[in-house]
Every structure is written in C-alpha cells, then in structure tokens.
Amino acid sequence: ENTVFYQIFPDRFFNGDPTNDPSPVRPWGEKPELFNFFGGDLAGIRKKIPYLEDLGVNALYLNPIFDAPSNHKYDTRDYLRISPDFGDFRTYLNMLKDLHRAGIKLILDGVFNHTGDQFWAFRDLMRRGKGSPYQQWYNCHFPVTQFPKPNYECWWGLETLPKLNFADQEVVRYILRVVAFWTLTGIDGWRLDVPNEVRADFWPIFRRLVKTLNPEAYIVGEIWDDAAFWLQGDKFDSVMNYPLRDLIISFFAKKEMNADRFDQGLTGLRARYSEKVTRSMFNLLGSHDTQRFLTICHGERRRMLLALLFLFTYPGVPVIYYGDEIGMTGEKDPDCRKTMIWDEAQWDKELYTSTKDLIRLRKEKDALKRGEFRTALVSQHGVYGYWRIADRERMLILFNRQDSMEQVSLLLAPGMRGTWKQIFPVKGEEVKYNDHFQINLPPWSGMIWEYQG
Question: How far, in Å, CA of 104 to CA of 141, rounded?
C-alpha cells in the first residue's frame, strides 16, 4: 500500500562499470536486438539511486541478475552467482545496502521453472547421459539431444531452456537452498517467472520458507489472467495485474470502450479478490514483455497522462517500467528494452513532472493508498470519476477522455458538502459546493480534488 515500484531491465539502465562489460558491447542508445548487450549493471543501478530517490519510488523490481549467458538472464547458468557482466556478490551487497539506506526495497526475479542449457546439472546430463546423478532433474529421453529438436521438456520448446522436474525432491531442495541464500542477503521479496508452469504444490513450501526468513517479504507471481487460485493466502501475495492493464489500454489508450464498460470491468476485477489482495496487486502499464504504453497510445502524451493518473489513484501497488516516466517508446521485445535515456533534453518533461507529482501524492495521501473506492460518475462515453475515502480524507478523481468539454454535476452526500480544492494537475483555489459538485472538464483532462471540510 505504501509502495511505488520501479522495474529495471539491468543491461539497459546504466553502465556503472565498463570493466565488466560483455564482449561485444553495443553503443548506448543503439537499437536493441534479441542478442546484443549494452553494459548496464548493478554498479549503474547503484549510481542512479539519487535519480530513483528524486523520482520518489521506494521499491525496485529487477529482471534476473543471476549468472546467465543472455542479455535477459532468464537462462540461468548459476543461481548462486551474480552474472559477471552485472558485477559480483560484493557489488550486489553494496547496491542492496545503498538502496535500503535510501529507503528503497528490492525484489528479485526468480526463474525456477527452467534453467539455461549451460546450467551445470544440465551440462552434466548432456555429457554423461544415464550415468548422470541429475537425470531425474529433467524430463528427458536418452541420449539427450538438442537438435534438430530437443528430446527433453523445455519452456515453449526452446532447447536452451530445459524445464526442471519439481517431482524430484532433489530439485525442490536445491531451489529452496537458492531461495534461502538470496532471501537471507536481505532482499524484500520475489517476483516469480511463469509460476503457473511449476507444480502448484511447490509454492506453499516456497512461501513458508520465504515468510519464515522475512515475514514482510512481498511475493509476486507472473500470472497473466484470473489469479484467484494463486491468491488464497498460501502461495503469492500479489500477481502482475495484466487484466487491469488490458482495461486501461482499452479505455485510455485505444478508446475501445466507454466509461460504463470500463467501470464494469474494474468492478469485476475487484470482485475476484479480497480487498486486501486488491490493495496488494502489482498494477502496471507495461513491462519487459509488452509494448511500451506510450507506443500503444500512438505517442499521444495526453492519453498516457490520464492512464498514469488512474494508475496512481486506483487501489493496488503502482509500478513504473523504467523510462516510461520520461516518454520512452518501443514495440514488443526486444524494442521495449531500449537503453535508458539519460540526456534530459530528450525527456518528455510533462510526463516526468506529472509522474513525480503523482508519486508524491500517492505517498502523502492515505485515501489514495488504502482508501475505500467508490464509483462517482459513469457516462456512456468517456467521462469517468470515483471517490477514494479514508477516515477524514476524501478525494474525487475525474477523467474526461473526450475531444469536447464535458459538464459534470455530482450530488454530494451530506458529509461531502463544503469546500473542495483541486490538487492535481495544478493546485487550485478552494471552491465551496453545497448540494452538487459542478465543473466543466476540459477535453482529455484528469484531475484530483480534495475535500477541505
């Protein structure tokens, strides 16, 4: 509830130590491809902590940082080693210490469904076949072959990503040792890659271990659809809220649905989960697996500004994908994984300033963090509004996704009659409303009003 996340794809954020660059490394700013490297690393993240502090975020989600040959690191070679092109264990501990000193939490990406084909156990299996002590770690035929088609189970049929066999207790014990090792370094939680492809009975064991070592740890699963099964209190605390993102895209970015259908969709999502789970959901506009949100908006800043206003005022945990706050664009992977732009002259300053303001308001206002959500206004076109209420704090958030000025008139309950003040996007004069809250909403505008009493 008190957290604003920032997701970083480490190879593309900042190169803080050129001495660990992989070879060859491409010039910063060049077009990303599936297999190229740009030299971003943990030292770079550490050096940019002041940027993160100034932006206002207080938690990081890092894509995988364990040793792996690719730029994305989802093909683990060694779970107990930092990838050398990102630094070493000391670099990691220094980054973690400085993040915590700055009040920023850290969750790591756990890729446990599959390893890479350079993982030591799989290499032993390839070399020794039925003589390998790790033959039960994977579901395979003998002799093990990768080409022209792998004869072992792998993720999406990719020969470089052999799937671990969680029916084998040695695999379970090994992965739990890995989880314990990194959790005990002081991290604040895990984001779990494709957890629905791992045996479901593993995750309660995982949860018990993590919560025993760190009762405050936050566990997020990568689930793309209905996640009720995973959010019953025995597996995950949260999931990446892609269904909410789909609604945001349809209403704000593409104008495919009216406010009435948008509100119905939101009501349906909240009905799936308890209020506690809804407030813990990992709410995102984009990630390393999706088009950049501004690209979906065809570069129209005004659409993204409304989506950001919604993201930071709706129940759940808001997440920013690195660079979205400055207007970065990109199609699907690998284009959505461009290098971070550090030349401020190339930033979209309005997006950046608005994001900072919204983060600040989110952290300041209890109503936005944990307040009750009530629909206030639904139209048959693009005008939408809701209340956020916590104790004496009352907020009204309004959106006009139309090309025309729209008049709004809301009947006020007795406890809401009196003085109101606009606090976003600009601070306005106090206005007194008796029975009705009335305002003309400019085209493509969004605003937050706060009850003054």
Answer: 46
CB atoms within 10 A of CB 261: 15
pLDDT tens digits, 328-369: 999 999 999 999 999 999 999 999 999 999 999 999 999 999
Dihedral of CA atoms 265, 60, 388, 258 in degrees, nearest 10, equals -30
Strands 282-284 and 238-239: unpaired
Catalytic hit among 193, 263, 406, 450: 193
* Active-site hit among 67, 222, 348, 357: 222
Which domains can be identified in the chain, with CATH numbers? 5-118+158-369 (3.20.20.80), 119-157 (3.90.400.10), 370-451 (2.60.40.1180)
pLDDT at 1: 78
Per DSSP, 250 falls in state I
Q: What confidence tens digit (pLDDT) does each residue in 104-120 have? A: 999 999 999 999 999 99
Q: How many Å apart are CA 390 and CA 373, to the nearest integer?
A: 9
pLDDT tens-digit readout, 46-77: 999 999 999 999 999 999 999 999 999 999 99
In the residue annotation, 193 being an active-site residue is answered as yes
